[in-house]
């Protein structure tokens, strides 16, 4: 086999062409490791293929996939109420997804956004409980600070075992999700339970001074601005600062980065602080802007959905905005199929299969079929 | 029965699904493929068992279905990771997300329905006379005995047969194995598929012996604990036995302490297994900081056969 097209990349043979007599041509799959940029259409194609795969399961359940998908789409984007709801769901996805993207850039696999979001929401609620009578500005600022700090601390608890003890951050961050959710259960059933809440597990309602401003009469709150500002800052930081340059260098080649004298451990800690902090802001925005109290299930898996949001966007800031709106729509659409008696877990199933097709598509693109004489 | 005996019985019962999933993970990772989809595979195994058992009433059929479904998912994982050389971390995460979504979707119709029966027990009544051993071993179910047998079989397979030598070679140095004429891709496919099926069986055991009805997300992170246990057990089946029972004991200890009238709220007791997983891994990392950890050396790196001229 000759080196292909004059490029000196290490094209490798997947299956060596068997030396068959009698056949003039044989097809051969060839792996081209230089093709690392996946095409722009691969996210779109993976969404379409995922819709087709899940259509099979929906049809097996005796429903028409077309009806179900139409219902989901109308529920999420068809009405102005649906659309603002989609945007409301997109806010935590954008913030968490951005945090995850920052960490994934240097191959730190944070899957703890769910827990980081939860502790952020708890810390913001703590402000309303321990400082109930602050004026609006100070109350919101303090909630934001506490939420970010709690999320960042939760991220740090993943980063330190990784950098100083060599523990896989996937396991740590996931274990901490369960710890955070149990802590949430404890406070909403225990010390922070609303005495006037008819025994319903949840904190007292926030006052108007503790709630984020909303747009007109909708539920869309100012957290959207937090998300967009964070995306812009992320873009500028990665593009134009030394820190961003080092981050890109580690992402491209960690070994070279280490030889260049870049302190990788420090970067891991920084990205986990940012990652956790952003998820913490998402948690603060959820309690202060949407639910106006702390309760069980404040996140329908935003932290996990954000993983796919980040990956589908190829860690690209503009892509993150698009994919978080899309997945916000998927969550809202998932709720709307409940009216025709289907479980909302359809949207989770779709999310998982989108990720499957996405990672497969990225790799299939690297193979080319060649015909050898 | 005294407290210790009860705790031992509970540890074995809670530890068996962990053990099966850890053994499955060991098979995967010995072949060099990371399996982070354990949580999703366990859920799929559990929901398949519940659906088939409730609909057909046949336990054996239910177990076979669980094995078949998760083996197919394992093949998907090996196709992505071995043939396409996709990111193994991402493929595992996709498996977990897809598994939890699909299991919730499929399980909706049978959610909360009781299973027709539990795992049948092997009645060794002649053991009943002996105080502690009789209580523990006298009425263990078939799946528990199977998991114990499997520990032995896998230990012998991995460390004392030529098949095991091939497996370890593929996990440590696929290039060398390839040169020696070992079929790297075939071995990776078979062990990843078999490992996934074992993890699925772990899910089946969870519903049969531990929580006899389907609830959404009933594994509650045990798949992930098993991923940690693989490291904790240093990819060794015999160690996996002790590690799984240790965590089984932790898991049930919280519940027992609560029964004894503890003042600590139950939420904190439920956190114990998760926090201990992190602490144990940190301790192991600290102790083995300058030593080989036992990780298969090519874990996580896809094998690319060099170009030949």
From TrEMBL, chain A:
It holds the Pfam family BPD_transp_2. The keyword Transmembrane helix applies. It comes from the Bacteria. This is ABC transporter permease. Keywords: Cell membrane, Membrane, Transmembrane, Transmembrane helix. CDD domains: TM_PBP1_transp_TpRbsC_like. The chain crosses the membrane at residues 40-60, 80-104, 111-131, 137-158, 170-189, 220-238, 268-288, 294-313, 318-337, 349-367. It is a multi-pass membrane protein. It is found in: Cell membrane. PANTHER family: ABC TRANSPORTER, PERMEASE PROTEIN, GUANOSINE ABC TRANSPORTER PERMEASE PROTEIN NUPP.
UniProtKB/TrEMBL annotation, chain B:
Keywords: Cell membrane, Membrane, Transmembrane, Transmembrane helix. The chain crosses the membrane at residues 6-26, 33-54, 60-82, 89-107, 142-158, 189-211, 217-235, 242-261, 267-286. It holds the Pfam family BPD_transp_2. InterPro entries: ABC_transp_permease (IPR001851). It is found in: Cell membrane. The keyword Cell cycle does not apply. It is a multi-pass membrane protein. The keyword Translocase does not apply. PANTHER family: ABC TRANSPORTER PERMEASE PROTEIN, SUGAR ABC TRANSPORTER INTEGRAL MEMBRANE PROTEIN-RELATED. This is ABC transporter permease.
